Each structure stands twice: as C-alpha cells, then as structure tokens.
Amino acid sequence: MRKSDLNQSRGATSRTARDINRRLVLNVIRKHQPISRADIARHTHLQRSTVSTITEELIAERWVTRGAFGDLPRGRKPTFMHFNGARAGIIGIDLQPSLTTLVLADLEVRILAQETIHLSPGTGQFVPNLCEQVCRLIKSHPHIACEGIGVTLPGRIDPTTDGLVFAPNLKCGMMDLKNPLAVATGLPVELENDANACALAERWSGAHLEEVRNLVAITISEGIEFGMILNGQLVRGSTGLAGEFGHFVIQENGPLCSCGRKGCLGAFASNAAAIRFFCEATSSHQVRIAPPTFDELLRLADEGDRNACDSLNCMAHYLGMSAAIIATGLAPDVIVLVGAATRAWKQIGPIITAMVKKHSVTGVNPRIVPAGPEMRLRGAVALITQRHFGAIQTC
C-alpha cells in the first residue's frame, strides 16, 4: 500500500478528470488500434457517451482518424479508430561524449530523418552548433509540425532547474542546453538521463512490457547509467541523482574512473573498460598504434580474436555483477541492457544471466532484455510523447 502525501497534494478539478480520461482514451487507441468506441469503453470503463465526446475531440484535433466500418450481424456498424502517428514530429537528441545523434520522428517513433554531430560537448562551439543543426533539420521538413525536443544524455538533471548536476563522461561542466534550444526553435525541450529515458521508452513501447511496473534500464557506453521505474514511478530523487550505481566503488585503488575516483563499477563494466582489458592483454606481445574503438573491438570478437572475446567476457562478468546488485536490491521484473555491446548478446548474454542467478541471494531472477543504442533515441522521443499518453510520475 502506498501512503499519499497530503501535504504535496492538490484537489482534483473537472479539468483534471477530463485530461485523465482523454489520455486514457488516446493511449488505448494507440495500443489497440484499430479499435471501436465500444471496445474503448470496455478498456477504459468509461461511459460510451464520454468516449464518443473524447474521440470526436481527438478526431477534430487530428490525433485520431476514422477507419473502416466493422461487421455486425445486426445493429449499427462500428467505426474503427486509428491513432494518427503522422500528426506531428518530434526532435530526438542522443548526446554522447564523442557523437551526438539527432532524429526527426513521428509520434509512433518512426524515424523520418537522422543526422550526427562529431563534436565533443565540452567544446564551446557545441551548443551553438547543435542549435543550428536542429533548426536546419526542422526547416528541411516544413510540412511536419514539431511538438517538441527530447534530449537524452549520460548525466543527471536537477529536477528543479533542468541543469546538469553530474555528467563526468561528458566533461562539459554545468552546460545549459535547454534554454538555448528552446530560444533557437521556439519549442518545448525536455532533458533526461539516458537510462531514465530508456526505462520510459521500454515502459511505453517495449514488447510486452507496458504492464511491467518494476523495471531497470542499464545503459552502457563510456560509463554505465541506471534508470529505475519502481511501482510504476520513475525514480529520480529530490536532487535528480538517484541511480548512480555505476560510481559505486568495488575495488579500492582500481582503475581510474571518469568521476575522478578509482575502482568504480563503471570502470569495469563499460565500453571503455572492455577496450582497456583488450589493450592490457595485447600490450606485452603486440604493438598497437592506438587503442581500438568499441566497434572495432566488437568486429574483432566477431572474427574470433581471442583477446577481444576475453575482453568482452570480462566486461560481461561485471555487467552481470551490476545486474545482480540491482536484482538483489530492487527486485525488478525486467532489466533492460542498452548499448552497442548487445550486438554481441550471444556471447555476453549467457554470462550476464549466469552472474545474476549466481549472486542474487534473494532468488529474484528478473527477465534480462537486450536493446541496441537506438533505444536512447526512442527514449528522447518518449520524453515528449508521454505528455499526451499519461506521464509516469517521478519520485
């Protein structure tokens, strides 16, 4: 049972009830289309007259379109409703230390255009360059009305100021990203930690996961990030810093982490860690001009390179340890791993699963789900679409 904090509560108005009912109807149409008004009423437990009023409003606003008539042996034939995913566009931005990806997507997260920026966020030119490229992307598709801009990044956001409060991998300090983008485009901008956004995206549009109320997403890149939906609520904490398990020290005087400390979990379970394992294994008998990129490491492993395979196995061992910590401490139903490493899932997946079974002392064995790096872009788009489909509460 969840206790309500009446000190933080406000009385509901008739407008609140209308908004809730509207979101219920719109979400049911999106999930179950094509669907009749009668079936919408059954799914939502709303009066048929209420459903008819709401669907007419949604049709007038182009959120919903009428489809074919259904067949009934007698009586009035039902009209099937369809969600109009092409009604508007959303700019999704996945901001990473060395590469930023921009997409223009529709409301059903179909990618309409994609661009990249090969520029570090720590440079002074990054924000003006990003604003310019976003504006250019919008102008190149004048027939699409944009709803807003969603940005995911490997860092934590202050929920009161929307400013970066912790992003050691970006090396950009307290960068203001929201206000410049909003001023340049005139659109609402939502910023979120990439793991939080991935958890939201998986909850909204993941296969068979929309009813899951306890889910953790682990994003893997230069570091590892954790996003938690527990009891149906996105957990951010009062400072926005909840979920930084990647900077928990597991080995004193271990390898240096991007946060400046030594031996953090992320220094063992990230892409950067796998590259370090490979370089350590090859340094004694092989001269390399430069460390491989993570994509190159994956290719070498796919070609059967023993050192590359061993490096990924070592990384998977610590990812499994990370997932076991989550399984023991939070008991989620699902853990989603997001990143390029999942391209080697046949190799690393069994190691991660075995580690969870071995070290989860409570006996909780959550479902382990792999997802590629494109999940971050789906998460960026979800930051905007969730405003229409019933936003998940945060705590």
Description of the molecule:
Helices cover about 40% and strands about 20% of the residues. The protein is α/β, with parallel strands linked by helices. The chain folds into 3 domains: about 15-85, Winged helix-like DNA-binding domain superfamily/Winged helix DNA-binding domain (Arc Repressor Mutant, subunit A, Orthogonal Bundle); about 85-195, ATPase, nucleotide binding domain (Nucleotidyltransferase, domain 5); about 200-375, Nucleotidyltransferase, domain 5. β12 (about 225-230) and β13 (about 235) form a beta hairpin. The protein is globular, with a radius of gyration of 23 Å. The mean pLDDT is about 90.
Please identify which CATH superfamily of the largest domain we are dealing with. ATPase, nucleotide binding domain
Order of secondary-structure elements = HEHHEEEEEHEEEHEHEEEHHHHEHEH
Class from secondary-structure proportions: alpha/beta
Share of β-strand residues: 15-25%
Question: Tally of extended strands?
Answer: 15
Biggest β-sheet strands, sense, barrel:
5 strands, mixed
Overall shape: it is globular
Taking all Cα atoms into account, the compactness measure Rg is 23 Å
